[in-house]
Design a protein that fits this description.
By secondary structure, the protein is α+β, with helices and mostly antiparallel strands. The chain has a single domain, classed as Gcn5-related N-acetyltransferase (GNAT) (Aminopeptidase, 3-Layer(aba) Sandwich), CATH 3.40.630. Helix content is about 35%, strand content about 30%. It is globular and about 40 Å long. The chain starts with 9 loop residues before the first strand and ends with a helix.
């Protein structure tokens, strides 16, 4: 059955059975976006399963197909900070609003977990990412090295960004995405 964006999209929390689909959508999205500087897959199923022990993947899906995902690791005891990463949308569905939908859901989920900030890392060579996150209220806070065990074609590092979540409690209380994720 063909899936298009006229079909309803829902956001839900992933479980272990979703690991293969998560790895597939991440690798497909990142391969397309990052092939100019790296030749390897971004993640494998074992790594997804490991991430599921420390945080949550939120999935955008329609008719049983995973269209996108984002990883969140709420850390309210760590100064109220959460980590967000691996935002990935199936290449055929990019630029359709799914990335923003998942970001809204992730931010709302973290607010519900009593987080006051979300921290992210973006690859410096992916200039479009900084713009996307700046529009969402993220500010640059520093840099950090790219993993040295990954061979890259170009010099690369991470740009660290953060967003304060305070002051958005009303959105978190009323978001239909949040109600579905945090009953």
């Amino acid at each position: 059955m063909k899936n298009d964006l006229t079909s309803p999209v829902r956001v839900r929390i992933a479980d272990q059975e979703d690991a293969e689909s998560i790895a597939g959508v991440i690798n497909s999205a990142f391969r397309r976006a990052e092939e100019f500087f790296i030749d390897t897959d971004r993640i494998d199923v074992a790594s997804v399963l490991n991430f599921l022990t420390t945080g949550k993947f939120l999935l955008a899906e329609s008719e049983g197909l995973v269209l996108g995902c984002v990883y969140v690791e709420p850390c309210p005891l760590d100064n109220g900070r959460a980590y967000l990463g691996l935002l990935a949308i199936d290449p055929a569905r990019q630029h359709s609003g799914l990335g923003s939908m998942l970001m809204d859901a992730a931010e709302d989920y973290c607010r519900k977990q009593s987080c006051s900030f979300i921290d992210i890392k973006v690859v410096n060579l992916r200039k479009e990412l900084s713009g996307f996150y700046h529009k969402r209220g993220y500010v640059e806070t520093g840099t950090s090295p790219f993993p040295t065990d990954l061979e890259t074609k170009l010099r690369v590092h991470f740009i660290e960004m953060s967003k304060e979540l305070k002051g958005k409690e009303q959105r978190a209380k009323s978001s239909p995405l949040l109600l579905a994720l945090c009953p």
